[in-house]
Amino acid sequence: MKNLIFILLSIIILSSCSKENNSEKTIKTDYIVSNIENSEIKNDEKQTENINYTQNGSKILIAYFTWSDNTVVKNPASIDVDAETSASVLSPGNAELIATWIQEETGGDLFSIKTQNKYSSDYNECLNQARKERDNNERPALSDKVNNIDDYDIIFLGFPNWWYTCPMAVFTFIESYDLSKKTIIPFCTHGTGGLSRTIRDLKKLLPANCKVLDPIAVYRPEVKNSKSKVVDWVRKLNY
User: Fold this and answer.
1) Rounded distance, CA 170 to CA 63, Å?
2) Number of H helices, E strands in the chain
3) What region, left, alpha or beta, does residue 205 occupy, with left being phi > 0 and alpha being psi -120 to 50 degrees?
């Protein structure tokens, strides 16, 4: 009889231990699965954060012309950076600054439009040279080229307003490629002239099947404080 009682007690104790072990295994398993799932979510979030901002898989080029990339300043220390007519002669130029903000927002590729012959670093001399080029409808030769232009669907195109139109080098740029069916998004800096004839003159030279979206014009003295304005403009574009 004692033996029977001992056997029954042994069975009860073993059964209880087995349940506790199974419970422990279940808790541990749930904890591991939960950790794996959380880890996967965090990894997905990190991957999303690293994706460049583009729409519909389009590839973006940000091409810009700026005075600072098209002149040689022999004595940068002599430039008054607070002077309205001098600030954009030093890098980064006004159009370049806006281009970098667009690049940060879209993940596009930057390209500086550079001429073979440089402009004077003197403001008035530079404007006189620009006026002669405009009056003669010149096309200044460029020193660099975008070799894979066909890869781009969208081109942000930046420039200063020179004599109420684009610098002639910008026209050289757009006439150097087949821009058919591409989306062009202009951005302009100015000294009170706004966009003037820039968009009209661009459209005359672009293929008829090009899509030109609403541009932005930023007053030259306000460029450095206009990042939020530029970013807001980019985010509202339907490209």
Assistant:
1) 9
2) 6, 6
3) alpha
CB-based contacts of 171, cutoff 8 Å, min separation 6: 139, 201, 205
Contacts of 59 (CB under 8 A, 6+ apart): 108, 109, 151, 152, 153, 154
The whole-model pTM stands at 0.74
User: Is the per-residue pLDDT at 76 higher than 70?
Assistant: no
The three-state secondary structure class of 157 is strand
For the residues 120-131, what does the mean pLDDT come to?
92
Phi-psi region of 65 (alpha: psi -120 to 50; beta: other; left: phi over 0): beta
pLDDT band per the 50, 70, 90 thresholds, residue 41: very low
| Encoded tokens for 190 | 């100015």
Q: At what angle do helices 168-175 and 123-135 cross, to 10 degrees?
A: 50
**Helices marked H in the chain:** 2-49, 94-106, 123-135, 168-175, 198-205, 227-236
Q: Is 140 exposed, middle or buried (0-12, 13-18, 19+ CB in 10 A)?
A: buried
Q: Which residue has the tokens 């302009």?
A: 188
Q: Which residues contact 80 (CB under 8 A, 6 or more apart)?
A: 86
